[in-house]
Each structure stands twice: as structure tokens, then as C-alpha cells.
Amino acid sequence: MKQPGAIVSVSPAENDDNVSVHAPITIEYNVPVQVTPSSVTLSGPNAAVIATTLRVSDDGKTVTVAPIAEVPAPTKLTLTINEIRTREGAIAEKKTWSWTLPAWLRVEAANQIAGEAALWSSPIVAVGSADKIITTVSNKGLTLAQLDGSLNTWSQMGDPLDIPAAPRPSLAFDKDGALVMAYMAPKGPQLPYEIRVRRWSGSAWEPMGQALDDAAGMCPYACFPVIARARDTGQLFVAYTRPVPGEPGPETLVVKTFADGQWKQVGSVVSDSSQGARYLALVIADSGVPFVLYTSEGDTKGTWVKKLSQDGSWATVGSTPNLPNENPAYNNSLALDASGNPAVLGCYGGKYQLRRFDGNQWVGGGENSRAGCGTYESFLASNGSGRLFAFWSSSGVVQAADVTNANWQLLDPTPSSGNLRAGSLTVGPTGIPVIGWAEDNKTIRVRRLNR
């Protein structure tokens, strides 16, 4: 008697709405089976048939269905088993089921590390080797968590850093892949803040050089330090502000690099005490040349981008990216385009716009069609091969876009309802953007672009 072929399992699961575009499509039977090119039909929206190839495992029990061309997200797919027979010739069990490829893959909320306590700041997200996702959780001190490959389990990285308020940290990866963090912490009660840099050893956060004792002054909410690494040389840089002695607030902007076990100043002072630099951004060209963005509230109001020159001075890139009669944008971000020229994302004229330096001057690079800007940062990142991605919050929602061209391609992150606040955007070694935001100051959301 011929044994009937029964389905043991299918993947993706029926009605799964969080499936990667790279997820394998498999059907497992209880007995060996045989297939023909017409054994199954994979279809998309409006029953459009998608060409596939079929492969049977060595034991004959698992059928793998592979689209010949990549299926772009977002979309809904349906697989229909037309006729698959066992090797003995019996007709095997049939099935039709569907699943969804979202634009952004959901990552489990990191609050399993921190609980549902109120958050002090939005999450900062970093992506390391093998696309390992790291996020910050700021409620009971500053905690970092790393995600395993299954996208649903977070593990805490060491003990929380005991900071009475949680100024925004900055994350980068050292050339050996170790996570490095720069953040502000008070020297003591009622004392100015200092910049501390810590390196994750695999089990604890270890100091990386001495604290930058001259840093940050009394400006914990506008002068966060930023850390970045040169892609080719692996050199780490930190940009931060430090006060003029005896005066409150940030005044002088400097950049330092780590060499011979200590942090050493790079070139001259980026901006002096007349400018009052705040809201910093730092990117490093592949060649190792740093670019710094800051907003001046002093004698030279505006948003400025400067580049380190060979003589050690900081040269202004063009003139200020602000348009005439516009106030400095306080939620700017900075990235380098395919030509190595800087691009700035900020709120201009009541909506998010991109400014690009074309080698001679700052020109427009497109804008968001939706009016309104969030009260928090916007984010801009390059994938290393010329594509620029943006992420921002506006009117209680978060939005993301591919802004490589002037005609922005919106990438809907399909956020949950609630008061949403953009937290960060990063691009990992494989070029895939990852975003993080806070919802109602309670829940951290992390999404990875489904590509």
C-alpha cells in the first residue's frame, strides 16, 4: 500500500506578516516526493505568477521554492501546491497559503531589557558585523543591548552605566569590530559634564583612554559628543564642545583622535568661542578626512560644515547650507554622497529638505512633501556605495526615505500608533538601513529595511 504524502511543515508560516525577502520557501513532507516545474505556483498581488525554480533535498522530503528574480517588498505572496507526488506515485497533500514581505522587518521591542519604565531619550541604533543590531535603552541609567540573529531576543551588554540623566550617546565600531561608545556624564554633583569613551570587551565596558575632562561644560541637551570611524584606516574620531573657563555653555568645538593610548586633538579648533557650536554631526571620508557639522548661535549664526585641511586648519565647505533669511536648523544631520561630497538633512521652510554640496556650492537635493518638522533630530546615512537614506519624525509619526535623488522615495516604516519620536538611523556593513524610535516615551521600536 502506498503511503500518503502528508505535509509536516511549511515556511514561511501561514499569514506571517514579517517575512524577509531572503527567507527560504520550503515544504516538508513525511515521505520522499518528486516534483515537476508545474508542481507549485507562486503568485503576488492580483494573482500575478512569479517564476520559480524547485529543488528537492537529498532525502527527498523537503521541497525548496526559489523565485528566479528577487521579489521586492512590500508585497503579499501566495504559494499553491498544484500536484506533488510521492516517489511511490501517490498524490501528496495539497495546500495554499500566503504571507507578507513588509517594507521594514520588525525587530522585537528592546523593552524586554528595560521594562516599561519611561524612557529618557530615543534609542541609538548601531549595526556591526554579521548585521548584529545594538540599541541603547535609557531609563534606569544607560543600558545597551544586542540582538541575536533571530530578530526576537535581546541580551543586555554589561551593567547599566549610572547616569542621573541620559544624555544622548554616540556609537561606532573599532577596526576589530568592538563597539565603542562616547557619552556625557557629570564629574560629580552640580559639576560640569565630561566626555567618556568606553569600549565593549565582550563582558564589560572598559575605559578607552582617560575621560576628556575639559569637555561639554553645562550643556547636556544640545552638545552631545559624536564618534565615528574611518572606513579604510579604522581611525576613531570624537567631536565635542568645551566651555570657555568661567563661562557656562558650549563655546569651542574640537575633534580628537585616539592614538598611542590617548585622545589627541586633530588640527586646530573647529570653531572658536564667538560661534557657540551646538548640535554636532561627524562623518569620516574613506580617506580618513573628517567632516564636522554644527549649528552656530554666536556671531556667525547658521549651519556650518567644515573639513580638515592638510595644514591642520578646518576649512568651511562652501558657505552655510542655510537658504537666505532662514534660521539655523537645529535637527541637522550629515553624510557623504557617492562623490565624497557632504550632504545635510534639516528642517528648512517648515519641512525636511536636503542640501548637497556639488563641489562649488550648496544646492537643493529634494524635500519631503509633508509639511512639518519634529522637535527632535533628523538622520541621514550613506550605505557606502552612494545611496543616501533619511529618517525623521514629523507630526507624531516617523518617516524614512531613499534621498539619493531629488525625487525622494518614501520608505514607509509602518509605525504603531502613538506619540512617535525618531531616534536614529544607521547603515550596517551590508548596506541595509536600520531605524529606531521611541513610542509614547515607553516603548522602543527597531526596524530593518527588507532588502
From TrEMBL:
It comes from the Bacteria. Keywords: Signal. Residues 4-100 form the SbsA Ig-like domain. SUPFAM superfamilies: 3-carboxy-cis,cis-mucoante lactonizing enzyme. This is Ig-like domain-containing protein.
